[in-house]
Amino acid sequence: MSERSQGPAAILARIPQAQAAAEMAAQFEQTTAFEHLSEHSRAEVLSGLQRTLRRWSLFVSSGVMPPDGDFDPLREWTRARAAEGARLEDLLRSFGLAHQLGWELLRRHARADESDVLLELAAPLAQYVDRVSAVVTETYLAERELLVSEDERRTRSLLERLCVPSPLDAPDSELADRLGIPVEEAYTAFAVALPGRLPHSHAALAARMRRAGFRLAVTHGDFVVGLTWKPLELSDLGDGPGVVLAVGPPMPRGELTAAREEVIVLAEHARRVGLVGRLETEDHLLEILLDRSARLTERLRARVLAPLAGEEHAELTRTLRALIACRLDRTATSAALHIHRNTLAYRLKRIEEIAGIDLGSPRDLVCVYIALAGEQHPPGAAG
Questions:
Q1: What is the CATH number of domain 293-373?
Q2: What is the pTM of this model?
Q3: Fewer CB within 10 Å, N side or C side of the chain?
Q4: Which residue has the higher pLDDT, 302 or 227?
Q5: Taking the CA atoms of the chain, what radius of gyration do you get in angstroms?
Q6: pLDDT, tens digit (0-9, with 9 covering 90-100), for 41-55
């Protein structure tokens, strides 16, 4: 065996693949593609990464592209993600991250005298990523072609055009007439989530809604989204209890793209915290604001609550939550906690000292409220 072929194999032998796959999975949890995965799909990520690392290692060692059949598990994984509504660009971005992490693994485990081997591996690694990206793209587009009906494709095209304030051109006007959709100055955006249902349930609901007269209903990942020019109620969905229907106010066409994003954010928030029923964005502006600024919300939450973390401060944290739940009414808070008002006053003073906040300051109270609102308790959990 040549010296060059020994180099990559020697580097790979030093990489603990199980640990590397776990590290990659932790990185993937931060990506947009991971956010849309079902719980079952999330559990498959680690085993999928382990298969990927084995296939990747074989290629790096030999320089020979794996046979086409070796990519069949990747094709099955991609079909499942397409069925769940993951976006192709998010999937490809994840594989770009995997390439970056793989390169970092090689660099981390290469010795100082193996820099020439690393340089030689750059081009083959890029070739391998191109191959994986091609497999994912081809499989994804083929699967989505099967999943999305011609009716929905036409509807989706018109929906996008109606979110632009300029007049419709002749083909779009003809399509609107054919689909029975009036061209209005304003529409109402909506999003529907079916918590716990299989991915195809959303496509079935979108088709039923179009047949029922809500012609601008389409699937968007694991939601049904769209625009309506007439009132939309839960009873119009005909899907029983446990449904989330997020509805915005009527908006002019030029603002509908943002309005659609807001109802999707609200529907996702409702599904995460266990809300069901018809929800209006105007009643949940704070939740939408927080969810659209998740990174900043988490930083604020850490700033307020991290000093109170730990079992030794559990009682203080519970007291702070009770104070907010009781609308800052200290008498009600004392009663809820079954403690004397003097005990409550002492605890609140300790909270101020430890967290560095002033519960008499409107600004600090807003920060506390937002920090607690940013917590993700399961439905029915004690606050």
A1: 1.10.10.2840
A2: 0.54
A3: N
A4: 227
A5: 26
A6: 666 776 777 777 777
